[in-house]
Design a protein that fits this description.
The protein is an alpha+beta fold. The protein has three domains: 2-144, no CATH class; 183-250; 259-404, Histidine kinase-like ATPase, C-terminal domain (Heat Shock Protein 90, 2-Layer Sandwich). It has 13 helices and seven strands. It has helices spanning 2-29, 40-58, 65-85, 92-98, 101-104, 109-132, 140-144, 146-217, 223-250, 263-276, 299-316, 347-352, 368-378, and strands at 259-262, 284-289, 294-297, 322-330, 333-340, 382-388, 392-400. The strands form two sheets. It has a five-stranded mixed β-sheet, with helices on one face. The radius of gyration is 34 Å and the shape is elongated. 19% of the residues are buried. The chain binds adenosine-5'-diphosphate and magnesium ion. Residues 308, 312-313, 316, 340, 342-345, 353, 358-361, 364-369, 393 line the site of adenosine-5'-diphosphate. InterPro entries: HATPase_C_sf (IPR036890), HATPase_dom (IPR003594), His_kinase_dom (IPR005467), HisK_dim/P_dom (IPR003661), HisK_dim/P_sf (IPR036097), Sig_transdc_His_kin-like_C (IPR004358).
Length: 405
């Protein structure tokens, strides 16, 4: 299917390239004042037509930046050549103005700026040559109104720049959207697969763990072996934890009740829970809640979201450092901030947040943030992460306030 499509695309390309190539050949032989003299100029013109046509036809085989740049340079040389060879054909000047449009077709920003710069330098040399070397008699239309021509040239480059800027931005956005769509689709399929596998693994795990727990309590078993059992049970617990997280991502529970969640209560109970699990080491959580905030969501899920984010903040902080949490109303939104002064993240790391299994921790699952993003999305909330490597991280969670839903 894909091959057929590529084949068709190539055919369309070759077919449309016949038009410029035919026009270049016509330019050589139809009413060409240099045709009869077979001078250096004409041979140079013929060579350029051959080289440029070759480049255009070879392009689908070498779709890369170097080849595009070569194509741009050859095209520029070609258009400047016909400008100098046929001074009587004043309209060739228009081609000079529009050389950078070729690079717009490639949607390559660097190449576009390169061709714009190359064209500006070339036109400066061209004008200087015409003025300083007394060529005005050949290019009288340029000499007669030099300033006007310069302004026109600058104007044309500005127009081309705007066309590029607008189309490039639009295409980039579309590309991003397409990428996101592909990523979501991929995640959906991976999720379904993961859920099926996780479910199948969980049952045997539970059975094995049950027996191990039974043997671990057996007085006949020696203490040495019991130690091994305990280790096995702890490893199985880790595996169970990963699987249950995976299941909650892959099979989000849509039947949970939506209720009015008191954010302050949930924050308080999430911190209490972290305390009771002994996860806080020596870290303190500074809770700062200005007013009562309510959102429409499921309490358990909001708690899970907050625990995941606060846990990350504590894990990123040095022992003893505190984590600040604030909750307040901001323009119809409930805004919760979790601020830590820990290791922070680079831009790339922040972008990778939420990718399944992305974790920099030796015992991390890399599913925590993904679960958070899923829960936030479910209740029309957002999670925004600002981070500086070595300085800390601020995670801002926003939900529509209950009164404004
Ligand atoms: P896990 O905690 O299991 O590794 P998460 O999805 O919760 O998975 O987080 C993914 C990764 O993002 C973490 O391994 C960590 O490197 C990074 N991260 C998340 N929150 C913070 C934070 N507050 N400060 C620094 N790094 C963080
Ligand atoms: Mg985590």
């Amino acid at each position: 299917m894909r091959e057929n499509y590529l084949d068709l695309k190539n055919k369309i390309y070759y077919f449309s390239m016949l038009v410029p190539i035919a026009m270049m050949i016509m330019g050589l032989f139809v009413d060409n004042p240099h045709m009869g003299d077979h001078g250096v100029g004409f041979i140079w013109h013929v060579s350029l037509v051959v080289i440029l046509s070759g480049c255009l036809l070879l392009y689908p085989r070498y779709v890369n930046r170097v080849f595009r740049m070569i194509l741009m340079i050859v095209a520029s040389v070609y258009f400047y050549t016909i400008f100098f060879l046929y001074p009587d054909t004043g309209s060739t000047f228009i081609f000079l103005c529009f050389i950078p449009t070729i690079s717009i077709l490639f949607f390559d920003a660097k190449l576009f700026y390169f061709s714009l710069a190359l064209n500006s330098v070339s036109i400066i040399f061209t004008y200087s040559y015409i003025v300083l070397f007394g060529q005005g008699y050949q290019f009288y239309f340029i000499k007669q109104d030099l300033i006007g021509n310069i302004i026109n040239f600058i104007g044309s480059q500005v127009i081309i720049y705007f066309i590029f800027y607008l189309t490039y931005g639009r295409i980039k956005k579309q590309q991003q959207y397409y990428e996101q769509l592909k990523q979501t689709e991929r995640l959906k399929i991976t999720g379904q697969l993961a859920a099926a596998v996780a479910h199948e693994i969980r049952n045997p795990l539970t059975v094995v763990k049950g027996f191990l727990e039974l043997y671990e309590k057996d007085p006949a078993v020696s203490n040495d072996i019991k130690r091994h059992y305990r280790l096995m049970i702890s490893e199985l617990n880790t595996a169970e934890h990963v699987i249950s997280q995976l299941l909650s991502v892959a099979k989000p529970n849509n039947d949970l009740d939506i209720e009015t969640v008191n954010v302050n209560d949930v924050l308080q109970s999430a911190t209490d829970l972290l305390h009771s699990y002994g996860l806080l080491h020596e870290n303190k959580i500074e809770l700062n809640m200005a007013e009562e905030c309510f959102i429409a969501a499921n309490t358990i899920e909001i708690k899970q979201l907050l625990i995941n984010i606060i846990k990350n903040a504590i894990e990123a902080s040095e022992i003893g450092d505190s984590v600040k949490i604030t909750a307040e109303m901001k323009n119809d939104l409930v805004e919760i901030k979790v601020i830590d002064y820990g290791q922070g993240m680079s831009e790339v790391e922040v972008e990778s947040l939420g990718t399944p299994f992305y974790s920099l921790k030796s015992k991390g699952t890399g599913l925590g943030m993904m679960i958070c993003y899923n829960i936030a999305k479910k209740y029309k909330g957002t999670i925004d992460v600002q981070s500086t490597k070595g300085e800390g991280t601020t995670v801002t969670i926003r939900f529509p306030s209950e009164n404004n839903l």
